[in-house]
Amino acid sequence: MKLIGSLASPYVRKVRIVMAEKKLDYELVIDDVWSPTTTISLSNPLGKVPCLIMEDGGAMFDSRVIVEYLDTMSPVGKLIPGGGRERAGIKCWEALADGVTDAGIVVRLERTQRPVDMQNDAWVERQLGKIRTGLNSMAMALGDSAFCAGSHMSLADVAVGSTLGWLAFRFPEINWREDHPNLARLFDKLSERPSFKDTAPVA
Ligand code: GSF
Questions:
Q1: Which atom of ligand 1 sits closest to the CA of residue 98?
Q2: CA within 13 Å, CB half, 151
Q3: pTM exceeds cut of 0.85
Q4: Burial 154-182 (b: 16+ CB within 10 A, else e)
Q5: Is 148 helix (H, G, I), strand (E, B) or coil?
Q6: What CATH number is associated with residue 119?
Q7: Which atom of ligand 1 lies at the shortest distance from residue 108's CA?
Q8: 94: CA distance to ligand 1 center in Å?
């Protein structure tokens, strides 16, 4: 398999962590989707990474679909429970973590892609509010538990860890460590794993 992605993307990181936890082999193909020379749209019509190229050459996106597929590829390190409420709960954690990242990406694009006099402060504040309420919600739901859901690491922790790592990387001014020591505790624990160490974001 080939994974098209970048070293800074939190969505790509989520997939790479799942690959590592499940001990799946793949080749990482770096593509800067913002460069005029990108070829990403040949594989993903939406022009986004991550995009997985499967053994038969077929392409798969987005990160939530890819990780769901990867989890079925091997019984090693099962990250998503079989069904019902438990499965939906994990997917909801993932949606929350990805949603916080999505809001952060919107803020970054507003700040980096638009001329300063065209930037909309109210729009940025709306997105920053989603990041704040998303982090509050994660911290409340985590409480004193060792993992986001259940008694072992799941996709919920992978998604939350990827998001927190990306916030630390792109938004150092957001003080989630001080505001939510339990998220910091979870993140530090996850960061000891080779799957997290080997995928820390790089500009
Ligand atoms: C989001 C992918 C995405 O926005 C997923 O795979 O989970 N829901 C999708 N990827 C960004 C890179 S990044 O900011 O992580 C991307 O490829 N953006 C290019 C564009 O044209 O929006």
A1: 7
A2: 0
A3: yes
A4: bbbbbbbbbbbbbbbebeeebebeeebee
A5: coil
A6: 1.20.1050.10
A7: 14
A8: 15
Q: What is the mean pLDDT of the chain?
A: 97
Same domain, 133 and 179: yes
Ligand 1 centroid–CA 144 distance in Å is: 32
Last residue of a domain, one of 71, 94, 114: 71
Same domain flag for 91 and 39: no
Q: Which residue has the least CA distance to atom 18 on ligand 1?
A: 48
CATH number, domain at 56? Answer: 3.40.30.10
Confidence of residue 67 (pLDDT cuts 50, 70, 90): very high
**Total domains present in the chain:** 2
Q: Are the C-beta atoms of residues 14 and 5 closer than 8 Å to each other? A: no
Neighbours of 89 (CB within 10 A): 17
If asked whether residues 186 and 100 sit together in one domain, one would say yes
Looking from the CA of residue 10, the nearest atom of ligand 1 is 15
